UniProtKB/TrEMBL annotation:
Residues 1-25 are annotated as: Disordered. The chain crosses the membrane at residues 33-51, 87-114, 121-138, 150-167. It catalyses: ATP + protein L-histidine = ADP + protein N-phospho-L-histidine. It comes from the Bacteria. Pfam families: HisKA_3. This is histidine kinase. Residues 200-265 form the Signal transduction histidine kinase subgroup 3 dimerisation and phosphoacceptor domain. Keywords: ATP-binding, Coiled coil, Kinase, Membrane, Nucleotide-binding, Phosphoprotein, Transferase, Transmembrane, Transmembrane helix, Two-component regulatory system. One of its GO terms (molecular function) is kinase activity. Residues 167-205 form a coiled coil. Signal peptide: none annotated. Its EC number is 2.7.13.3.
Length: 403
C-alpha cells in the first residue's frame, strides 16, 4: 500500500478525493444519503422551473430534448462522489444546449469545490462561466435580458464555488484539529513513557548507590569468615556483628526505596530521612567499624547550610568511592576530602593508594561510576575519576553551591 492510498483510507468520506485507480471508496453514510438526495431534489426543482419556461417559448421536440437532458443531468448527480470532475465538465457542456441542466451543474460545481484542490476548481469554474456565456447567446431566455442573464450566471457559479471551498476549508480545519489532538495525545503518552523510564533509571541508580555499599560489607566480612575459620572468637563475633548490622541496614534501605514506589495512599515505611552532608561522618565511621582505614578531611564548618540535594550527591559520591576502594583495593587507607564555600561550589574527592597485591576485577565493575556521572551532571556539576599519580585511584567531583 502506497502512502497516497493510506492517506485516502484515513480521510473521512467527505474529504476523500475519489477517482484514483484502485483506491478504496468509502461507503455512503446516512448523512451522505441525505445530502445527495437534497441536492438531487434541488437540481430537479430548478430543472422543472427551467423546463416549464422553455416549454412556453420553444417547439415540442426542443422541449422534449430539454426534459430528457435535465432528467439525465439530475440522475448523473448520484455519480458526483465518484467522478466529480468529469461530471462537472459534462454538465457544463450540456448546459450550453439545455438550460434545464443548470441546477445539476451548480450541484456538481459545489461537489468539485468541496472535494478537489483549488487548481482544478479554478479551471472548472472558468469552464462553467464560459459555457454559461455561450448558453445565453445560443439559448437566450425570452423573459430576461442578456446582460442580466450573464451577470446572474456568473454570480451563481462564483457563489456556489465559494460556498463549496468554504465548506472544504472548514472540514480541513476540523480534521487538522482532530489530528492535532491525536498527535498531542500520542506525545503525552510518549512523555509519560519517557518519564517512567527516567524514574526507573533513577530508582536503579539509587538502589545501586544504597545497596552496593551494604552488600560490599557483607561480602568482605563473609569472605573473611570463610578464609579465616581459625580466627579468634572476638574477630569472628565482630565480623558477624558487622554482617548482621549491614544486612539490617540493607533491608531498611530497600524498604525505603520500595516505599517510594508505593502509591501515596498506601501505608508503610519509606519516610526515612535522606542522607546529607551532615551524615557523611556517620558513613565514614561505619566504614571504620567494618575494618577500613578512612580519613575524613573537610573544611565545611556548617554541613546543614549545604543544600539538601547537593549534600545528598556528595554523600553518594563518597559512598561509591568507599565501596570501590573496599572492593578493588582492600586494606588500603582511603581519604575523603570535602572543600568549598557558598558561591564557589563544593568539591569532594576520594583517594586510595595502589593495593599491595594484584587489583581484583569484579563483574559489573564501572556501573556505579556511570551512575555517579549521571547523578553529578543532573546536579549541575562534573565528575572525574581515574588512576592517581601514585598508582592508586582518585575520584573527584565539583558541585554548585549557590551563595
Amino acid at each position: 500500500m502506497t502512502r497516497t492510498d493510506r492517506q485516502r483510507r484515513l480521510l473521512p468520506s467527505h474529504l476523500a478525493e475519489p477517482g484514483g485507480s484502485g483506491a478504496a471508496r468509502p461507503r455512503r453514510t446516512v448523512r451522505d444519503w441525505i445530502v445527495d438526495t437534497s441536492l438531487f431534489l434541488l437540481a430537479a426543482l430548478v430543472g422543472l422551473v427551467a423546463a416549464d419556461t422553455s416549454a412556453q417559448y420553444t417547439s415540442e421536440p426542443v422541449t422534449l430534448f430539454d426534459q430528457l437532458t435535465g432528467g439525465l443531468a439530475c440522475c448523473a448527480l448520484w455519480l458526483r462522489r465518484r467522478w466529480p470532475v468529469g461530471l462537472a465538465i459534462g454538465l457544463s457542456l450540456a448546459n450550453v444546449v439545455a438550460p434545464v441542466a443548470a441546477g445539476a451543474l451548480l450541484a456538481s460545481l459545489f461537489s468539485v469545490a468541496v472535494r478537489r484542490p483549488f487548481r482544478e476548481v479554478a479551471w472548472i469554474c472558468a469552464l462553467a462561466v464560459a459555457t454559461s456565456v455561450v448558453q445565453v447567446f445560443l439559448r437566450p431566455d425570452p423573459t430576461t435580458s442578456r446582460t442580466l442573464s450573464l451577470v446572474l450566471g456568473f454570480v451563481l457559479v462564483l457563489l456556489v464555488t465559494a460556498w463549496g471551498m468554504l465548506v472544504r476549508s472548514r472540514r480541513q480545519l476540523v480534521e487538522a484539529l482532530r489530528e492535532r489532538a491525536r498527535r498531542a495525545e500520542a506525545e503525552a503518552e510518549l512523555r509519560a513513557a519517557q518519564a517512567q523510564r527516567l524514574a526507573r533509571e533513577a530508582i536503579a541508580r539509587e538502589m545501586h548507590d544504597v545497596l552496593a555499599h551494604r552488600l560490599t560489607l557483607l561480602s568482605v566480612h563473609a569472605g573473611a569468615l570463610e578464609f579465616r575459620p581459625d580466627a579468634p572468637p572476638e574477630q569472628i563475633a565482630r565480623a558477624a556483628g558487622v554482617i548482621r548490622d549491614s544486612a539490617h541496614e540493607a533491608l531498611q534501605d530497600l524498604r525505603e526505596i520500595i516505599g517510594v514506589l508505593r502509591a501515596p495512599d498506601e501505608e508503610g515505611e519509606g519516610n526515612r530521612p535522606q542522607p546529607t552532608l551532615a551524615t557523611l561522618p556517620a558513613l565514614v565511621e561505619e566504614s571504620r567499624q567494618a575494618g577500613a582505614e578512612v580519613v575524613l578531611d573537610t573544611t565545611v564548618d556548617d554541613p546543614d547550610a549545604v543544600p539538601a540535594a547537593t549534600g545528598r550527591t556528595v554523600y553518594r559520591i563518597a559512598q561509591e568511592g568507599l565501596t570501590n576502594a573496599r572492593k578493588h583495593a582492600p586494606g588500603t587507607p582511603v581519604t575523603v576530602t570535602v572543600r568549598g564555600r557558598p558561591g564557589e561550589g563544593l568539591t569532594v574527592g576520594v583517594h586510595n593508594p595502589a593495593p599491595a597485591g594484584p587489583v581484583p576485577h569484579l563483574p559489573g565493575s564501572g556501573q556505579g561510576l556511570i551512575g555517579l556521572t549521571e547523578r553529578t551532571a543532573l546536579a549541575g556539576g562534573r565528575l572525574e575519576h581515574g588512576p592517581a599519580p601514585d598508582g592508586g585511584f582518585a575520584l573527584r567531583a565539583w558541585l554548585p553551591w549557590p551563595p
